[in-house]
Amino acid sequence: MRPARARRLAAASVLLTLLAAACTSTTAGKGSDSATPTAGSGRPSGSTAARPSAPATRATFHDCASAFNLKALPFPAGRAKRLSFDCARIQVPLDHADPTGRTISLQLVRVHDSAGSTSSRRSLLVNPGGPGASGVELAVSLAAQLRDAVLSHFDLVGFDPRGVGLSSPITCLTDKQKDDVNAASPNVLTGKGFAAARTIAKRVAAACSRKYGAALADYDTVQTARDMDLVRQAVGDGSMNYLGFSYGTELGAQYARLYPSKVRALVLDGAVDPLADDITSFANQLQGFEDSFDQFAAYCRTTSPCSRLGDPREAVYNLARKADPDGIPSSAAGETRRATSSLVYTGVLQALYSQSLWPTLGSALRTALAGDSREILALADRYNERNDGQYTNISDANNTISCNDARPGPSDATIRATARSWKERFPIFGLWSAPSLFTCQQWQPHRTPPPAPKAATARTVLVVGNLHDPATPYRGAKVLTKTMGNARLLSWDGEGHTSYLQGSSCVDTRVNAYLVSGTLPATGTTCPR
C-alpha cells in the first residue's frame, strides 16, 4: 500500500532512468494481449493452499531490442553491443487452484550478456514493486546499471505480473477518468468530502467489477507468486534467483513460503512489513514521508535557490491553499489542466522518493507559488505514470492487487476516526491521503490476504533495509527478516527509497557477492551513508 490516493508502494527508484517499452505490436513475443479475462470468466481462488499448477512449457524467445528505447539508457562503454534483448509470452492459469482451466498470458523479457559463460548461466528474475510496476522495464533498465560480474553470471529476466503492463492488463478507467480521480481533493472530515471520496471509490470498484467480473479476484499476490515458479520453469532454471524491490519483496517472500526448496538466492530490498495491518502500514508510510520532508526542508533552508522559499512546510501549505478551489494554471504547451491541492501533494510526495529530486521540488514549489504549476504537475505525472495525457495501467493494477490482498473494510467509523488522527499526526500528507481509505471498502468481496511468509528455505534470504526509507520504513526490513526465519539483514544509513544501486558501494558490493557466490554480509552489517 502506498499513500497518496493510489495506496501503493513505490516502484524502486532504479526505474527512474528507464524510458519506455513499446511492446505493442502483434509480433510473437511482443504482442498486445488478447487473453484478458472478461466479465464472468474465471473464479475466485479464495485459497492459498491450491495444488501445484501444471508444469510450464519452455518459453520461446524472439529478438525484441527494437521495442525499447535503448539509446536513452546510460550503458557503460562497450556493454550495449554485447547485450541481446529477447521477448516471450507464456500462459499461466487464471486460477492456480484450477490448473487446467482458463489461462492468461505473461510478458517476459530476457537480457543476455555475451561476455558470460553460457554453460553455467542462470537467470535472475527481477521485480520493481508497485504493485503494478513493469518487471519488463526494470530488467531493461538494470542492464545498464548492474556490474559486469552480475551480468556475466545471470541472464536478467523481467516479467510484467498478471494484470500489469503487457500481461493480461487490468484497465478499469479511461485516461480522462484518471485525470479526474487524481485531481479530486475531497476533505473526508466534512460531510460533503466524505460522500465524494466514497463515491469516487465506489465508481472505480464498480468499473472494474463490471468489466472483469469474477476473474478480477484472481489478480493477487499469492497467484502472482505461483506464476513466478512457472516463469522459472519456462526459462529452464532449476532454482530461483530473484531481486525484488519494495512490493517486490512481498512477492519474493511469498515465493519463498510456497517454494522453499527452489530458492537459491533472494534479495528483498525495501521490505514491506508482513505483519502490519493495512491502516498501520499506511500510517507507517505517512510517517516516513513526513520524516523525509523534514530532511528535504533542512536541505532547502540552506541551499539556494530553494532557501528563498522560507519555511518549506509553510510553502507547501500555502501552495495547497492557493490550488483550491480553482487550481493553478500551467505554462506547458497544450496543457489544459490546473494543479489542484491533490496534484500538488502528489508532486511533493514523488520528489521525496529520491534525494536527487530535492532540487527539482524546490524549483517546482517556487514556480507554482508564482502561479505556474508546470513543474509540480510534471512531478505528479511522474508518480501517476502519465505521459502526454496517457496513463499506464499502474493505478488499475495497483488497486486490483492491493484490494484483492486486503481484508474487507474499513468501516465508515474507522475512516472518520483515522482521518482525524492522521490530520494531526501527519500534517502534510495525512488528510490528503485519507480518501484512499475508501479504495477497498466497496471492492469485490473474494479476497486472498497473503499469509505471513515464514519460509523454511535451505539457503539464507538477504533482506536489505534503508534506515531512512520513506516508502517502506526500516522496521519492515527487521520484521521481514525475523518472520522469514532463515534471512540475513543488510542495512544502509541512507536516504530515499530502497538501497541497492542507490549510490552505496558498500551495499552494492555485498548484494553482488550474495547473488553471484551466495556470500552473506556479516550479521549486523550497516553500510554508512
Automatic annotation (TrEMBL):
Pfam families, per database record: Abhydrolase_4
Coiled coil (residue ranges): none
Segment forming the signal sequence: 1-27
Q: Which InterPro entries match?
A: AB_hydrolase_fold, Pept_S33_TAP-like_C, Serine_prot/Carboxylest_S33
Q: GO molecular-function annotation terms?
A: hydrolase activity
Recorded superkingdom: Bacteria
Region (Disordered) location: 27-54
**Composition bias type Low complexity, residue spans:** 44-54
Q: Which UniProt keywords apply?
A: Hydrolase, Signal
Q: Which residues form the Peptidase S33 tripeptidyl aminopeptidase-like C-terminal domain?
A: 433-527
So what family is this one in? Answer: Belongs to the peptidase S33 family.
Its name, as the record gives it, is Alpha/beta hydrolase fold
